Every structure is written in structure tokens, then in C-alpha cells.
Amino acid sequence: MELPAYPNARTELSVNESRQNHPIITHRMKRVNGVVTSDGAKWLDGHLIRHLYFLPPGHSSNQGYEFYVSLLRAEGVETLFECRSFSCGASNFWANDIFDISTLYGQDKEQAFYIGKKQNIFYAVYAVRRGNGRIYTLVDVFKPHDYEMESAAVQSSGSSFLRLASGKSEIEKSSDLTSFSANMNSDSSMNALLIIHSTVPDTLAELDTWQIKMQALQDSIVQYLKEQGISESRLRFNISIGTHENVLNSNVKPSFWLEIVPLN
Q1: Per-residue DSSP letter, 157
Q2: 195 forms bridges with which residues in the sheet?
């Protein structure tokens, strides 16, 4: 679905590109132990089309918001989450931690956010009034890669999957793991089973190599979580080779995924 530009608005930013770890926010933003997170948030790979509009004088943030949300609802987009004013949390969370667009840092009471979904495409709208009175409306159309939707389809019992690359630096960049550690720190009664999955290797030599890499990934994850203040006694690990092949569909081998299963 192609969304029109806001009437007589000036386009401040246009993006049409592939994105990694694009945030899908379906709950209110909050800060936990210094980390901005949201319950149920997902970070997905896919293609993003983004437009940021500077609305003409005399228009309100609510007008920008309602213009696009009304269009989306009329097209049958399913609402996943929406908030207005202070119920959205702090505007700087959205501007800096979610959209990474400082222009969107505005008045908490003059903001609104909407996210919906139709045919595996996510539509998001964020409107805000800045302190200088300027009104901006952001519109995102995000289509996740097919393997991301397959992953979401098999998630159950509160467990979640995230793809892993070898090396501690890549683990530290994982927004999913950052959110998980924040949730662990905010709930001291929470424990977790972490299962490192892989696709099926083609040879015994590959199997031996992958086992070594998966053990190294486990060690890196343990070390990273320790640095976040999470005791290893709250964690259990399992390495599983050749499981969830339909989820781990990737053209790049080896392909490693981490399944996080919350436990009491």
C-alpha cells in the first residue's frame, strides 16, 4: 500500500533501504536500569520505506496523526498498539532510541504513536510538536524478510528467537539481548533457558567446527550477561544442532539462533 504525502507538507527525510534490527514497538516505552526497552518489542530485518514530513503552519500534531491513521484503518490495517500524549512515555525515547532522528524530540504531551499490520507489513506513524512549535509526522512502512515472519510464526510459550553472529562484538550489538538483560534485571525472580540452535551441517568436519563455534557463542553470551549484572546461576544453556530448520532458513552458513525461554 502506498501512502500519500501530507497535503502541502515539506518532506524532511526519505528512506528506502534494507534495515537490520528495525524496532517493532507494541507497548509503551520505558527505561530499565538505564536501557530503553518495551515489553514484547521485536527487532527485525527487512525493508523500510520512511518519510518524515514538516507540516505547514496552522496544522497540529493530531491532524498529522489522524490523517495517516485514518487512511490505514480504512485500508483494513490491524491496530497493534497506539498511544497519545504522556501515555507514550518520553518523546526523547522515540526520537533517539527508536527512530534515531533528533528532530522528533518534542513535547511529551503533544505526541502520538500508532503501529498496525496488514499482510505481514507493519505501518507506523509518529507525530510530535517540538518545543519551537514545529509539527512533524513520521510514516514508516516496514516489510520484514520472510525468515523473520517464519520465526515469529513458530514462537510459543513466551519464547523468542534471535539470530547470532560469531564474536562478542556482534552479541553486544543485539537489541534483543539488550532488552532481555533489561527484563532480567527488572525482575529478579526471572530465570531463563537459552538454547543455541543451528541448521544441519553437511559434513562431520562442519559439525565439529560448528560445535566449537556454538560453545564459544555460549561463553560470549554468559560473559556479556555477567557484565550486565546477571548471575550465571539464573541461566541454563543447551546446544541443539539441526533443529528448527524451517525457522533458521538462511542462505549463509553456518546459521546460529538463540532461543530464549523465560522460566520461574
Answers
A1: T
A2: 238, 259
